[in-house]
Amino acid sequence: MKKRLLSGLLAVLLLIPTLGLFSGCSSQSDLTYDLAGEPATLDPQSANDPYAFTVINEIFEGLTKVQEDGSIGLGVAESYRVSDDQLTYTFTLRDGLHWSNGYSCTANDFVFAFQRLLNPRTKSQTAHNFYCIKNATAVAEGTLEVDQLGVYANSDTELVIELESPNAFLLELLSTAPAMPCNEQFFNETRGEYGLKGAALISNSAYQADRWIVGSYIKLIPNQRYYDQDQIHLNSMVFWLCYSDTPAEGETQSEILTRFYDGDSVAYTCSGKPDEGLFDSSYTLTTHDNTVWGLTFNQRSTDSVKQQILNNQDFRLAIANCFDRSRYQDLLPEYLTVTDTIIPPGVSIDGSSYRDQTGDMTVYGLNSDSAKSHYQAMLNATGVQQVTGLSVLIAENDSVNNEQYFGYLSQVIQRELNLFLTVETVDQSEFDSRLANGNYDLAIVSLEADFDHPISILEDFQTGSAENNTGYSDSTLDSYLDQLYRGSDGEVGLCKLAEQHLLDSGIFLPLYYQTSYLAVDKSVSGVFLNPQNGAVDFRYARF
């Protein structure tokens, strides 16, 4: 999340008297918040950045929605039923739904939205989350037309979603941005500018876009056609767009923090070291622990010798048994917590932390004899006499010094196995590209829960998953995940089996959890980090 500072902020502030904007806490019905970057688009089917998700959370409502306590409840759907085979979901929409421009909001708006999402021409980076829908993969690959997608309307108020296989997490997915409705008539009227400016947006939620001044601010006002007017507590929301053309990340955060302290913004988020002032009694400070960092191994190397080594479980466990985490534990800042398990403590099942429910697990740390034994087993199995030329790919990161921390582990690996791993540090863009293309040997990556359930991380290693950048494939893990998708009994136990299987495979060696922080002025309630996308959510905000 690259943060930029609005270089012309003073010029924008001069416009305040004519715009009727207010400081974050000076009015009891007008709210302001600093976005650390400008949304690339507010088209829910195309958006893929946290700045966009923050705004989309306020102006669109799906069949389901995140409630104030973080749980999933019904949105524009008033009820639903599921077939006995769990493959067909039928939703009944509320009567009399309207968009902010007066158009009716119907089941057909969801049909069009999903067709757009899966249409390869849309190039959505989030479409893969909905490959569970019948024919979705074929539509996304261009081998079937969009009208063959398993989403259709029986009437204006009845929507049917058919699945390829059961997915017990469909209701969570339907609360996320890609599943928001899209009115086809209005979309066509925008002539290719849908979601790119305020005039090319309509809302079916509590607030609607009033103005979007590129490079300055986005202003939302109440949607008078929203079905539940009791949920509207504000006269306006103003999102200041804070960025610049220079990579002054530290200055950006400093200025945003100052504006928060000055009362010009009601909330502040950070994923690095929290400023001491955030612990003041004037603010409510909450933490969000849903990210884990670890070392992973490329399973699709084009180098035949490297492939033999990296795909060998004994090699991966040899490295795992060199993980002397005490070497870097005391160096970690307070927002990083050393770990030997995969699922972070902020991820829950039925409202309780998954970590608190699992009990003991078999974990891997420094064990010299095991490391040497596994390494020799790999040499015997592959016929390789000496392992050379392997490198660890690391992305530049101002908040997490992965290169330094791994350096201490690298020394142990060299001592125990006589194996030298070089480190290659690249910028985030190159890192993402090489990870996606399989152009690496080992890499330090972060896994973040896309929604509040362990499977949102576990499925990153599912065979064929679009999020599976390692190329890892294991039928046992796939079986555990399939049982979870089917809603089988023993949910916590199945997640624990899947996590343990990943640990035993050595495909992901956990290093540390990362904590993000949300500080909110105590004059405001109803502001939280959306567990489905990690963005700040203001839909229930009130003074």
UniProtKB/TrEMBL annotation:
Highest taxon in the source lineage: Bacteria
Pfam families: SBP_bac_5 (PF00496)
Principal location listed in the UniProt entry: other
Family annotation (InterPro entries): Peptide/Ni-bd, SBP_5, SBP_5_dom
GO molecular function, one term: peptide transmembrane transporter activity
GO CC terms of this entry: ATP-binding cassette (ABC) transporter complex; cell envelope; periplasmic space
Intracellular or extracellular location(s): Cell envelope
One Gene Ontology term from the biological process aspect of the record: peptide transport
Domain called Solute-binding protein family: residue spans: 75-467
Keywords, alphabetical: Signal, Transport
Family: Belongs to the bacterial solute-binding protein 5 family.
Protein name (Swiss-Prot/TrEMBL): Peptide ABC transporter substrate-binding protein
Organism: Candidatus Egerieicola faecale
Phylogenetic placement of the source organism: Bacteria, Bacillati, Bacillota, Clostridia, Eubacteriales
